[in-house]
Amino acid sequence: MKILVGYKRVVDYNVRVQVKPDGTGVSTDGVKLSANPFDDIALEEALRLREKGLATEVVVVGIGPADLTAHLRNGLAMGANRAIHVVVAGEVQPLTVARTFLKLIEKEQPDLVILGKQAIDDDASQTGQMLAALWDRPQATFASKVEIADGKATVTREVDAGLEVIQADLPAVITTDLRLNEPRFIKLPDIMKAKSKPIDTIELASLGVDVHDQLKTTHYAAPAKRSKGVLVKDAAELVATLKQKGLL
Amino acid sequence: MSKILVIAEHLGGKLNPSTARAVSAAAAVKPEIIDILVLADSVEAIATEAAKIDGVSRVLTIARAENAHPLAAVLAPQIAKAAAGYTHVFAPSTTFGKDVAPRVAALLGVAQVSDVMSVDASHTFKRPIYAGNAIITVEADAAHAVVATIRTASWSAAASGTQSAPIEALSLDVALPTHTRFVELKQGKSDRPDLQSASKVVSGGRGVGSKENFEIIYKFADKIGAAVGASRAAVDAGYVPNELQVGQTGKIIAPELYMAIGISGAIQHLTGIKDAGTIVAINKDAEAPIFEVADIGLVGDLFKLIPELEQAIG
């Protein structure tokens, strides 16, 4: 079984992103970039399936500029067998990402595609679902448990009502939620080993994907700030304040 | 003029309040019509409820045995077909809407606008990115249908009960896949108010310390008639089930009163509560970031303060 894993690079989750004063974007100069946390979880799950003998090959896929190579090396150091780097200068929107993955799927013929449930930069939460639609295959989003047997995936999903279990025939798309696993740390010897692992480089333009973006971001604004409130001295004062506001 | 199709969310034969919130967002587009689409195995009760929502022109129903459970792969082809002639398809940005809407968008070959907070014009919307650290204005291509999910915390539910829109059954010729099957839903049984629509929410965090200690949060919530929520740390630690998680990757809520107890206030949590009316923080660490956004703060030990609060409430 071959597994494709989406591996996006995003502004690190600890960075408090600032909007540029002129509203043209957010300041990303010099900020720390890391793997999208959900994608680390996706890669970890794929590696565990390989370690259980259920998968033979794990391929990480990144879409982005030339300097994305270093990021993909991290995925290889974590344990992926090889990487595919789809090179494109600017940002790509989820529909374009899904169309790009579909092209890679046609070539790679994976049995499973594991993606993060959302990227923590655009917070769109779309790519996995769109890919499953275009591929005409099952989707199991927001996964917190994955079991693979007899050509089927039994996936526990974190939904608003609780935990939903669904069964999907492979090939399928799974998107990861936070509690699926805890990704391993990269060890120094693995970084050395990763240097000799292959990264295929493909220009997005060469894939024949419709890259026409349908959404235009015209303005960035800082969120409305909540003003700092008051401290009360004890429980009695808190209850009195809430009663006064009609909240208790 | 815009014609909007709103996808109804429901469970156990009951309409989810998120649907009426999506209708509010649809009304903000000032459309010619707002139709609600109900997909279920048994549609009558849900459709009757949906028909009462103000501003709804028609309720369209697709009753099929395959629609007994909300499987995106099964629902999306039906929604995509029903969407013909509409300028917009809206779904609530709940796990239901997040699962199915992008699948519909891809079938229609259109981009999706996720988590719509406000409507500037028929094709111009505001939505949060970076866990709410930036709000962007997005323009969708008017040549295509707009598929959008609605950030329910940004919209109050459209009023209900003064009207009864016509209900029409759709019969669409759509072949449905069998590659995805529902197995079960493990649902925490609770008599407490629903976290996503409750007017009061009491949340506990890592500071609560254990699953056993969380009883103090449940008890206090019951005392004031509140729903119970939790931070990611409390869910990860196994104190409470996942459906109680509030924040960027959990539920985004807007109660009138939100009480954060033993929650430090990571940005990912704060993004889930910033539309709350009044935020109360109780934490023993006076430097905790939660106090930066709290309207009312109380520094101290929650295990001492909660019994005192209960006593003061009487």
Automatic annotation (TrEMBL), chain A:
Q: Which UniProt keywords apply?
A: Electron transport, Transport
Instruction: Cite the Electron transfer flavoprotein alpha/beta-subunit N-terminal domain residue spans from the record.
Output: 23-211
Q: Which residues form a coiled coil?
A: none
Q: Which InterPro entries does the UniProt record give?
A: ETF_a/b_N, ETF_b, ETF_beta_N, Rossmann-like_a/b/a_fold
Q: Belongs to which family?
A: Belongs to the ETF beta-subunit/FixA family.
Q: What is this protein called?
A: Electron transfer flavoprotein subunit beta
TrEMBL record, chain B:
What family is it from? Belongs to the ETF alpha-subunit/FixB family.
Residue span, Electron transfer flavoprotein alpha/beta-subunit N-terminal domain:
4-186
| Native source species | Dyella lipolytica
UniProt keywords, alphabetically:
Electron transport, FAD, Flavoprotein, Transport
InterPro entries associated with the record: DHS-like_NAD/FAD-binding_dom, ETF_a/b_N, ETF_a/FixB, ETF_alpha_N, ETF_asu_C, ETF_asu_C_CS, Rossmann-like_a/b/a_fold
Organism phylogeny: Bacteria, Pseudomonadati, Pseudomonadota, Gammaproteobacteria, Lysobacterales
Which Pfam families does the record match to this protein?
Answer: ETF, ETF_alpha
The name under which this protein is listed is Electron transfer flavoprotein subunit alpha/FixB family protein
* SMART domains linked: ETF
